[in-house]
Amino acid sequence: MSTAIRVLVISPRTLVRAGLGAVLRGQPQIQVVGQVDDAHAAADLHFDVALLDVRKKPLPLPFKFLALLSDPNDARSWLDAGAAGIVLETASVEELLSAIRQVARGETFLSPPIAKQIIASLAARGLPREQPIESLTNREREVLRLLAEGLSNKDIAQRLYLSVRTVEGHLANVYGKLRVRSRTEAALWAIENL
Question: Are residue 10 and residue 106 in the same domain, yes or no?
Answer without folding.
Answer: yes
